[in-house]
Write a structure and sequence with these properties.
- By secondary structure, this protein is of the alpha+beta class.
- Helices cover about 20% and strands about 25% of the residues.
- Strands 3, 4, 5, 6, 7, 9 and 14 form a seven-stranded antiparallel β-sheet that branches.
- Strand 6 and strand 7 form a beta hairpin.
- The N terminus is likely disordered.
Length: about 290
């Protein structure tokens, strides 16, 4: 495909690079003064015979067509660059763990096993980690579309929750901005964005609040009922409570993840494990 795009651009560029010849030593302005007639050459346009005369209006049209061709070439080059970026396969992404669950195939993009913490729980682009890394604070692949994307989360207590993003749900959209666009966001007591429970215990409270912001040096993330640690589903990084954190629920400078099911006010802790997957494809049922 890249080869065909290259041939297309080369042909457009060749046509756009044609410069009008001004005759045998005469300047363009001199030709204009000769009864507004100019001698057209075959290198100006393939539609005119070599000796045919044309008006300056026609030459102006030819020059304008050349400008349009150059603009088109620039557009095609930009499109090819965009396609090449999309087609560039990061070396590690196809090695990431996959999971078949709830009628779909899922591929990991974020995982944590007890280890040191970086400065952002969504620090790297998808594909930047190695499968064997003990932690990968990756974001969703750029190719995903918001209203078609879903994530699955599993923890070390056997819980598995599934969410579908929704651009018209402010809570879901705030999560999309964080996981996909790497944008700090916050919604408090907005629209409920509850998960579908695949296994384990359902959340105790409606998940209508989301925040992704820095706390004690680490950009952290919380999906819960009020932006304050308790009764959360996804909680990773540092403890969060409103605009800071509360020592009633979390210790300062302790980083980790919470289990998906939070029975009361469990803070993120370094001993827990969490993996996030994005939906790669649906799985057809036998006979379909």
């Amino acid at each position: 495909m890249r080869f065909l795009f290259g041939l297309l651009i080369a042909s457009f560029a060749a046509a756009a690079s044609v410069e009008p010849s001004h005759g045998h030593g005469d300047t363009f302005h001199e030709a204009v003064s000769q009864d507004d007639q100019c001698i057209c050459r075959t290198d100006l346009t393939v539609n005119l015979p070599e000796a045919q005369q044309c008006t300056c209006q026609e030459i102006q049209r030819i020059l304008e067509e050349g400008v349009q061709l150059k603009l088109r070439v620039a557009e095609l080059e930009a499109k090819v660059a965009e396609l090449e970026e999309e087609l560039t396969e990061r070396p590690n992404e196809n090695e990431y763990a996959t999971l078949e669950s709830d009628g779909a195939r899922w591929r990991a993009f974020w995982w944590y096993k007890p280890n040191a913490w970086p400065t952002d729980v969504l620090q790297v682009e998808y594909g930047s980690c190695s499968r064997d890394d003990r932690l990968c604070f990756g974001r969703l692949p750029r190719k995903l579309q918001e209203d078609e994307a879903e994530i699955l989360a599993t923890d070390s207590s056997g819980n598995a929750y599934r969410w579908a993003f929704n651009s018209i749900n402010p809570t879901a959209h705030a999560a999309w901005l964080a996981f996909h666009d790497h944008v700090e966001s916050k919604v408090t007591n907005g629209q409920t964005w509850d998960p579908r429970v695949i296994s384990g215990t359902p959340p105790k409270a409606a998940q209508d609040s989301f925040v992704y912001r820095k706390q004690n040096g680490v950009v952290s993330l919380l999906l819960d009922d009020d932006n304050c640690d308790c009764l959360s589903t996804i909680s990773m990084g540092h403890g969060l409570c409103n605009t800071a954190f509360s020592t009633d629920y979390a210790q300062a400078n302790v980083y980790g993840v919470d289990q998906l099911y939070d029975s009361h006010c469990q803070p993120p802790l370094p001993g827990n494990q969490l993996t996030l997957y994005f939906k790669e494809s649906d799985i057809e049922s036998p006979g379909e």
